[in-house]
Design brief:
The chain is of the alpha/beta class. Helix content is about 40%, strand content about 10%.
Length: about 260
């Protein structure tokens, strides 16, 4: 290959690289789809059968008129309750103390992201229900990317949570929505999740105020004075222990009266 041919080839390659990097080109200008707002069923394997739990929820609500509905991921799933029944419960005492004889439907599904909750809401889990209160605690799993779903940004997750609130309100306009701030994660104050959760919760607080939702942020109560997260509160840095659930129960008791 002569010098002239090499020069031509280099100019073609350089031009292609510049075009790919050009922010005004169509490929570079198109933002990625926010998958946090696109309803999908089960994405991740966990300790339970996702589809069987969905079926159990549909069966449980046939003859059950809940006054409180909890919507979320494993943090909600593992709290407690009998509708549907989950043998693995991390906060049964806090559950019993708070809910006592109240009729509560637990729509927490381990490993769920916002997009999974949207799918469940579109597939009858909340249809026909008119609870007095709906507690929504979702979004933390959107911070983790896997082969099945990429990590989402705080604005993307906030959009997914807003879509959930809108669906709940559309199906039951008179229900009071209690929107939980995403719980802190990671033992250390400088854990990579912390600034993302802070940014997400700021967006959720603004959204809740604009939509007249009740917003509860347990961060200050779950964390130690130095900002660390004790294993007495979350032994794995994500899921509350019985003591952690007691803090959540106490905060909810004031707004469920």
């Amino acid at each position: 290959m002569n010098i002239k041919s090499l020069c031509v080839m280099w100019m073609v390659l350089a031009g292609g690289l510049l075009m790919a990097a050009d922010p005004t080109s169509p490929a570079a200008a198109a933002p990625p789809t926010n998958n946090a707002v696109v309803p999908v069923p089960k994405l991740e394997n966990d300790f339970y059968d996702w589809h069987a739990r969905h079926a159990a929820v549909l069966e449980a609500k046939k003859d059950f008129n809940p006054e409180i509905v909890l919507i979320g991921d494993s943090i909600t799933h593992l709290w407690g309750g009998d509708h549907p029944k989950e043998n693995l419960q991390r906060g049964p005492n806090a559950w019993k103390k708070l809910f006592a004889d109240r009729r509560v439907l637990n729509l927490g599904f381990g490993w769920d992201r916002t997009q999974n909750v949207l799918w469940r809401l579109e597939h009858e889990e909340f249809d026909g229900l008119k609870p007095r209160c709906v507690v929504i605690n979702i979004g933390t799993n959107n911070l983790t990317g896997t082969a099945n779903a990429r990590e989402n940004t705080p604005p993307e997750i906030a959009a997914g949570i807003a879509a959930i609130c809108q669906k709940v309100r559309a199906k039951s306009p008179d229900s009071r929505i209690i929107l939980m701030a995403v719980f802190p994660r990671g033992a250390a104050v400088d854990h990579p999740f912390r600034p993302k959760i802070t940014a997400l919760n700021a967006l959720l607080a603004t959204y809740a105020k604009a939509q007249q939702l009740t917003f509860l942020d347990l961060g200050p109560k779950l964390l130690q004075p130095d900002g660390s997260l004790s294993t007495e509160i979350m032994d794995d840095g994500t899921h509350p222990t019985e003591k952690g659930y007691a803090i959540w129960a106490e905060a909810l008791s004031a707004v469920l009266k």
